[in-house]
UniProtKB/TrEMBL annotation:
Protein name: Candidate carbon monoxide dehydrogenase medium chain
Cross-referenced SMART domains: CO_deh_flav_C
A Pfam family reported for this protein in Swiss-Prot or TrEMBL: FAD_binding_5
Taxonomic source organism: Ramlibacter tataouinensis (strain ATCC BAA-407 / DSM 14655 / LMG 21543 / TTB310)
Highest taxon, organism lineage: Bacteria
Amino acid sequence: MYAFTFERPASVSDAARLAATGAKVLAGGQTLLASMKLRLASPDQLVDLGGIRELTGIRREGDAVVVGAMARHAEVASNAEVRSALPALADLAGHIGDRQVRAMGTLGGSVANNDPSACYPAAVLGLGATVHTTHRKIAADDFFGGMFTTALNEGELITAVAFPCPRRAAYIKFKQPASRFALIGVFVAQFDGGARVAVTGGGNGVFRHAGLEAALSGSFTPEAAAGVQIDAGSLSSDLHASAAYRANLVSVITQRAVAKALG
């Protein structure tokens, strides 16, 4: 292993100060440590966020559930508040990776990394969540960019994510069996003002599907989703699945997610 310094600050301000100097932030380590082992990343300084109590905790605030950036996937999956107010989020968290990944991976780490096949970004975008950082609050629609790209500035850290509670919601993914990432994952949510549909695994990053949202806002039923034509032109094609196959998955999984949300 090459040499690097290791810092474990006790406050968000200290962590942000170190990150602003170019230090690499370690949240759950499920992506960063693997990249370091493969020599794809070689930071000179690591900043472990694991000792910062300000970044932990899950609480209800009005019509939203606020999850601290360092909340582990397993904590979100088992938290009574989440299971009661946002069962779709608890279900999503409980099926990320394997047991070890769920024990170590964090909400903030996943959202900040923005892997194009990750599950949490679908929940953030599908629920229209707000990402809280050390500098501001960012709406989900403004947060995600392309592959591994977000609106975060250099040294800006996620502190929490506030998830609005919908009338009903569900997430289903078709897993790539080796990685357990989503070959296609769809998060559907019904609010009083209409439906939101977020798709992960389909291309360069998570995205909303306007056609499915319009159909489900008119009638939140599997039949309404089935009537929407999914364009394969913007979807990715690789050794795991063609774009046409992914397009069919988007349709099928959306129908199943709606049926699941309806109970």
